[in-house]
């Protein structure tokens, strides 16, 4: 029996990996806020995560999910931002907002994984 390789656990693990990469990307942007010519980066993984979610639609009124699984995330330069006088396009306020949003997302994922482990723990202990 494979307790930790369910599709839910794999998706949660992939989401945690993506969130950790996003944290690194935001931290790198904030560290280079005064670097002339630095171009802000962003991590793209939510679209990949949505693609990897698999569900069986039993009714046309249900939301559709993608059926392809992909664990790749990538970092790309932000192109829709305003350049500063030194060629840098890091917006500290936006980066701090993204950082807070990512931290909440990460904490939510950790709580979901803890819930899964607590369910397994309860079953192992016989429901006590």
From TrEMBL:
<dbReference type="InterPro" id="IPR001444">
    <property type="entry name" value="Flag_bb_rod_N"/>
</dbReference>
<keyword id="KW-0282">Flagellum</keyword>
<comment type="subunit">
    <text>The basal body constitutes a major portion of the flagellar organelle and consists of a number of rings mounted on a central rod.</text>
</comment>
<dbReference type="InterPro" id="IPR006300">
    <property type="entry name" value="FlgB"/>
</dbReference>
<keyword id="KW-0969">Cilium</keyword>
<protein>
    <recommendedName>
        <fullName>Flagellar basal body rod protein FlgB</fullName>
    </recommendedName>
</protein>
<comment type="function">
    <text>Structural component of flagellum, the bacterial motility apparatus. Part of the rod structure of flagellar basal body.</text>
</comment>
<comment type="similarity">
    <text>Belongs to the flagella basal body rod proteins family.</text>
</comment>
<feature type="domain" description="Flagellar basal body rod protein N-terminal">
    <location>
        <begin position="16"/>
        <end position="39"/>
    </location>
</feature>
<dbReference type="Pfam" id="PF00460">
    <property type="entry name" value="Flg_bb_rod"/>
</dbReference>
<keyword id="KW-0966">Cell projection</keyword>
<dbReference type="InterPro" id="IPR019776">
    <property type="entry name" value="Flagellar_basal_body_rod_CS"/>
</dbReference>
<keyword id="KW-0975">Bacterial flagellum</keyword>
């Amino acid at each position: 029996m494979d307790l930790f390789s369910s599709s839910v656990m794999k998706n949660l693990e992939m989401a945690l990996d993506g969130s950790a990469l996003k944290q690194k990307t935001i931290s790198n942007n904030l560290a280079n806020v005064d670097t002339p010519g630095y171009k802000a980066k962003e991590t793209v993984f939510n679209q990949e995560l949505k693609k990897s979610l698999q569900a069986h639609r039993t009714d046309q009124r249900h939301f559709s999910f993608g059926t392809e699984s992909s664990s790749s995330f990538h970092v790309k330069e932000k192109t829709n931002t305003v350049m500063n006088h030194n060629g840098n396009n890091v917006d500290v306020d936006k980066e701090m907002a993204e950082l807070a949003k990512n931290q909440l997302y990460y904490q939510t994922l950790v709580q979901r994984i803890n819930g899964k482990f607590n369910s397994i723990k309860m079953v192992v202990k016989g429901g006590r």
